Amino acid sequence: MTWTTGYLTELVALLRARRGDTTDVEVKSAAGGCPSLSATLCAFANMPDGGSIILGLDETAGFTLVDLEDIATLEQGVVAQAREAVTPPVSCTFQTLEFERSPVLVCHVVGLPLADRPARHGGHAYLRQSDGNYAMSDQELAQIALQQTQATQRTHPDRDPVPGTTIKDLDPPLTEAFVNATRSESRRNASVPDVELLRRAGVLALNDELTLAGLYSLGAYPQQFHPEFSVTAAVLLPRASGGRTRDLAHFDGPLPELLDQAMQWVRRNTRAVMGYDERGHGVDRPELPMNAVREVIANALVHRNLDAITDSKRVEIRLLDDQLVITSPGGL
Q1: N or C: lower Cβ tally within 10 Å for the chain?
Q2: What is the pLDDT of residue 212?
Q3: Is the link from the previous residue into 172 a cis peptide, with omega within 30 of 0?
């Protein structure tokens, strides 16, 4: 990864506005020499795209500059930790950039190949979340093992039959719309019976039980068989408010209904901002671009992991003062 002064300037402006680091960027002052970075190096190594460490800015003072006296020694200190304190050793690349007339050292940590993860420090595998490094849970370590297995021997949990289900467990209106749409898109499927078409589309397994994907997307009530196929949403309140959440909601039903309920919740909990169109007329614009919000939520629902390892995990939506966070089970 190659940084430029312009990119660094934009990033520091973002960090100052956030008042904190990001998931893929850690900032250290390095005023007294090379800081302890082993956990950060480990966490970035466990990310597919790695991460970057910026030395020479003081986060506690609003990301102001710190004089770096010996950049070569700083690089050596980072490399020593990357090679000796993290297993397997981590690779780093360095750039020295001028920022506000002073040098800043940027270290990019290269993410380990999937086959070599997880990296560990002090016996622990670390994961980067928000601006912190956290020891991976057993479930997260198992997720890496599953990804490694999938890379060499692909599994298809979406095709697995759900015991005890039949075509009667499908939602009739959704299924009819799906069948009609599928027929209209394929001459081969235009005249086949509904049951055969649903088999071809992966909604029914060969034994005519619903597949996991069929249940999730078209089932009348998927949560009867898989409670984790639901969504939780909440507004997270500032710490000073004295409360934790507002408008905590749980959504159930098939995937299309989950999407509709989630979108209604986001609209209910975001504001409209007064603006003007190209003709100068006043218009109300949503606080967030709803087309983009719908795309993100739909992706979280459609691409959630369906392996047994995520049986207890739901799609989660959290609304903060300055961001909308959507978590989809499966992946780190």
Answers
A1: N
A2: 96
A3: no
* Helix/strand/coil for 319: strand
The CA distance from 46 to 18, in Å, is 24
Residue 235, amino acid: V
User: What pLDDT digit, counting tens, does each position of 225-256 carry?
Assistant: 999 999 999 998 887 777 788 899 999 999 99
Q: Which residues lie below 8 Å from residue 8, measured CB to CB, with a gap of 6+?
A: 54, 97, 99, 104, 106
The answer to whether the bond into 254 is cis (omega within 30° of 0) is no
Tokens standing for residue 263: 């979108």
279, two tokens: 């003709």
Cα 27 versus chain centre, distance: 22
Write the single-letter amino acid at 47. Answer: M
Mean pLDDT of 297-305: 94
Is a pLDDT exceeding 90 seen at residue 37?
Answer: yes
**Which residues are within 8 A (CB) of 148 and not within 5 positions of it... i.e. 6 or more apart?**
114, 115, 117
Q: What are the b/e assignments for 231-250, b being 16+ CB within 10 Å?
A: bebbbbeeeeeeeeeeeebe
pLDDT tens string 109-130:
999 999 999 999 999 999 998 7
Q: What is the model's pLDDT at position 153?
A: 75
What span, in angstroms and rounded, lies between the C-alpha atoms of 200 and 171? 18
Residue 262, CB half-sphere, CA atoms under 13 Å: how many?
31
Coil, helix or strand for 185? Answer: helix
Mean pLDDT of 142-154: 81
Structural domain spans, the chain: 5-136, 157-224, 231-327
Report domain 5-136's class. alpha beta
The pair of three-digit structure tokens given for residue 103, joined into one six-digit string:
């040098």
| Residue closest to 57 by CA, chosen among 73, 72, 68, 41 | 68
The two tokens of residue 238 are 């500032």
Rg (C-alpha) for the chain, rounded Å, is 25
Dihedral, 8, 14, 16, 20 alpha carbons, nearest 10? -100
| CA distances (Å), origin 278, targets 275, 283, 284 | 10, 10, 13
